Amino acid sequence: MSSEVGQRAVPISRAELAAIGSPVTAEDAVGQGDVPAGFGRGARSTTGRRIGIILLGLIVPALLLLGWHLSTASGFFKPSQLPSPTSVLAAAVDLVDRGQLATHILISTQRVVLGFLIGSVLGVVAGAVLGLSRVADILLTPTVGALRAVPSLAWVPLLVLWIGINEDSKVTLITIGAFFPVFTTLYLGLRHVDRNLVEAARAFGVNGLRLLTTVQLPAVVPALFSGLRLALAQSWLFLVAAELIASSMGLGFLLVDSQQNGRVDRILLAIILLAIIGKTTDALLGIAERWAVRRWA
Amino acid sequence: MTAVLAPGTTRTTSKQALGVHFSGLGRSFGAAGSRRAVLRDVSVEVEPGEILAILGTSGCGKSTLLRAAAGLDVPDSGEVLIDGTPVSGIDERCAVAFQEPRLLPWHTLQANVAIGLPKSSSASAGKAKVLELLKLVGLDAFAKHRPREVSGGMAQRTSLARALARNPGVLLLDEPFGALDALTRIRMQDLLLDIHSAQPTTVLLVTHDVDEALQLADRILVLGRDDDGHDDGREGSTITELVTVPGARPRDRNSADLGALRSSLLSLLGVTGH
Ligand SMILES: Nc1ncnc2c1ncn2[C@@H]1O[C@H](COP(=O)(O)OP(=O)(O)OP(=O)(O)O)[C@@H](O)[C@H]1O
Ligand SMILES: [Mg+2]
Question: Is B38 in the pocket of ligand 1 (CB under 6 A)?
Fold first, then answer.
């Protein structure tokens, strides 16, 4: 029997994910913690508690907004330094009237969704192949590790030269950003599937694709979702990077453009929109994660 | 009982009991240099349809012996023959109930038992058989529960049902009743005997419990160190005793024959004063 000699990293835990800045939030932590144990958990009380927790989570943003309002209304900050919440709102209304805001939001979201989806699918495929095949692991893992070591923005000049400044190069960059978290978590997860379970299934003649779908993939669902959420956060990061570098539309473009025109109100607007949309997409993925973890873990 | 064995559900695998022959089996573990023998020179012929109980102290290699028969482990020396052909790789003729339940946490008990069904069984016959087995092990009310929602003993019974679903030529049971209370244990022992008498299969039953071995087995094999008084460097367990249990089942626990056999087995296992 082959014995594993080299030490391998443990699959990334949620605590670690939180530590490196993935948007893992309080309500997720609760959702995770109460998954196992016990017969028929009270669904009603859980829903009530979740709503309560979401409301509690809104306290700090509300206080921040209040502080922002007070500091500008009192004249502590000049409008050129920090515009008031109402003037940011006015900037939003103005952009809506010009018909630009929806365009910026939609094009940015489209780029993120495309890059995230393509990167995730490639990450799942690569993670599954390298995590399950000893040969592929030996042949390819050093190369993939080296590619992962390249800070992803280093690809930008190459992408611009090869693909040009267009949608494809932006989506490609986001794809690269989304690929590695998914690949890494799935790869490590598959290496750590309980050997006893795999052996028991194989003892009953389960192997190949059926082993993958009945044992290995269900076992890595929680790890996979951690990877997906990290990948989504990376996607937004790389979106802004791509749009800051070269674009004529999108929230990143709104940021550079407003910087050049000294429109701090629009800069703040773009930042707030990125926060809200990023959090929303992450929350949607969080709902899918809760469902999947309940189903498979 | 007969329902499980009705033609409709079992015809898919017209299996028969298969003989198992351990021939000079040896197994060591550890890296080169610090290898430690666990089993050596294990040779025994198990008749088709026989129930062989395997006794031995903890860590003496009982599970290792079963794993070799199932093809889950490759011995260093010797081989296992099932029905005259050597075991190489996972053997479809065997079904194992592992020492731990090893159920898939994301499947219901019903789906877990269904994993044990032979490939050839049809969907409807398979489902009927699974439900019937769950009923036999007393878990029909828990068919839709997940393993984490049931007790350790219930999980162990599910694991037994999964092995029985295979309708195997050789049934390998690694302490299948270890986590059960006294009453459930007796019910499961009776269930095993019922299934065995209705449907031919060879059973290798690892157990810690001498009384269980005396009640269930045709023969009892004791694994242990063959200490002949001096350290000749031959470590590892081998067969220190192989006895035929007198009398037909069900046996009278209080018979004098069994009493004498019980004390001699216990003293082989290092328990004295009984
Ligand atoms: N894969 C393995 N690698 C290294 N050592 C092993 C391995 N499998 C078993 N062993 C060793 O072989 C010995 C026998 O193990 P085994 O599981 O067969 O014991 P057992 O008789 O079933 O014990 P128990 O009654 O406690 O279940 C133990 O000392 C164990 O450490
Ligand atoms: Mg054991």
Answer: yes
What ipTM score was computed for the predicted complex, to two decimals? 0.86
Mutation target vs A (from B104, B149, B154; most A CBs, 10 A cutoff): B104
Nearest CA to ligand 1 atom 30: B59
- Choose among A159, A145, A296: nearest CA to A224: A296
**Domains of chain A (ranges, CATH numbers):** 84-296 (1.10.3720.10)
Q: Would the CB of B224 count as within 6 Å of ligand 1?
A: no
- Provide the 10 A C-beta neighbour count for residue B268: 19
How many A/B residue pairs have CB atoms within 8 Å? 46
d(CA A113, CA A117): 6
**Phi/psi at A21 (5° precision):** 90, 10
Query: Residue B141 carries which DSSP code?
Result: G
- Please report residues of A whose CB lies closer than 8 A to that of B104: 197, 201, 214-215, 218
B-chain CB neighbours of A3 within 8 Å are: 31
Q: How far is the CA of A179 from the centre of ligand 2 (A)?
A: 43
Task: Indicate the pairing of strand B77-82 with strand B170-174.
Answer: unpaired
Q: Per the confidence metrics, is the pTM higher than 0.90?
A: no
Q: What is the pLDDT along chain A (297 residues), one digit of tens a residue?
A: 444 333 433 444 444 443 344 444 433 433 343 334 444 445 567 888 889 988 998 999 999 999 999 999 998 888 888 999 999 999 999 999 999 999 999 999 999 999 999 999 999 999 999 988 889 989 998 999 999 899 888 988 898 899 888 889 999 999 999 999 999 999 999 999 999 999 999 999 998 889 988 999 999 999 999 999 999 999 999 999 999 888 889 999 999 999 999 899 999 999 999 999 999 999 999 999 999 888 877
**Which of A197, A203, A218 comes nearest B96 by C-beta?**
A203
Three-state SS annotation for A118-170: HHHHHHHHHHHHHHHCHHHHHHHHHHHHHHHHCCHHHHHHHHHHHHCCCHHHH
Q: Which residues pair with B94 in a beta bridge?
A: B170
Among B72, B115, B166, beta carbon nearest to A199 = B72
| Percentage helix, strand, coil for chain A under 3-state DSSP, each rounded to 5 | 80, 0, 20
**Domains of chain B, each with CATH number or no CATH:** 2-93+170-268 (3.40.50.300), 103-167 (no CATH)
